[in-house]
Amino acid sequence: MTTGFSLYGWLLGVGRGVVRWLHGWWTVIFIGAQLVVLAFSPSSYGPDARRAVLRHVYYAAGPGLPGFTTLMALFNVVLIRILVVTAFAYGLTQYALDAVVRVLVLELIPLVAALYVAVEYTIPGGSELYKLRRAGGLDALRARGVEPLSHEVLPRVLAGMFAVLLLALLSCLISLALAYIAVHGFTLAGAASYNHAVGNIFNPMVSIIFCLKTLLFALAVALLPVANALRDISRRASRTSVELQGLVQMFVLMLVIEIASLVGNYY
Q1: Dihedral angle, C-alpha 105, 63, 251, 99, nearest 10 °
Q2: Within a domain: residue 124?
Q3: pLDDT for 167 beyond 90
Q4: Does 213 fall in a domain?
Q5: pLDDT of residue 7
Q6: Where are the alpha helices (DSSP H) in the chain?
Q7: With contact defined as beta carbons under 8 Å apart, do 160 and 121 qualify?
Q8: Is residue 167 part of a domain?
Q9: How many domains does the chain fold into?
Q10: Of 10-24, 57-71, 172-186, where does mean pLDDT reach its minimum?
Q11: Does residue 4 lie within any of the structural domains?
Q12: Does the predicted model carry a pTM greater than 0.70?
């Protein structure tokens, strides 16, 4: 009898966990759908909204831009040197550039840019939004006739996405320039062969997958923290547990996106 009750309790707990998990993802999808509608609505970009978007874009990308690009340049120099020297040592000179571009540009840079923006901006921004919500700030905005989603949430999401795309773009350009210098040196003699090699890597299908992956990474790190900040949770749950749920959702979604891109690129 005791065994039956314990099995029933375990199944009940698993069922409640699955329901909470599904509800969490449904909340993210629902808020994301609302934000998509607001993002394409001209009424969301009044003077105050434009100022809010520009302010959040600066906070998301401005302060960390010099440090991130410098660190990525140093990281690229080290990793490119390792890959090129290894390829030369094993007689695989013709594959050195291919390995550099595929490892750095296609795989690492979008992931690193997304994680950097998540740590530096979107996760702290989600915490700020949660505190504002708990303090009644969002209700106060509604009482004044201001929609919180367009005034507080949409600027954060747009800024987070813009920051990921900007950092990824700059890092890709730096990586491609450093890869050329590492393989051909400070000369333009290898420009034609370099352009041909990079063009063969970035065929239409790979380019589409790369752009979609970067965009989905940006959407994941920008949307999930604010969506979890707007979730209705039980009073027993701490803010730390909600942040951890958001992190788990973010990593799971990014892992799925990365696996899908690998399948598309190499299978």
Answers
A1: 10
A2: yes
A3: yes
A4: yes
A5: 67
A6: 2-39, 47-61, 65-89, 96-100, 109-117, 123-134, 137-143, 148, 154-184, 191-201, 204-229, 239-266
A7: yes
A8: yes
A9: 1
A10: 10-24
A11: no
A12: yes
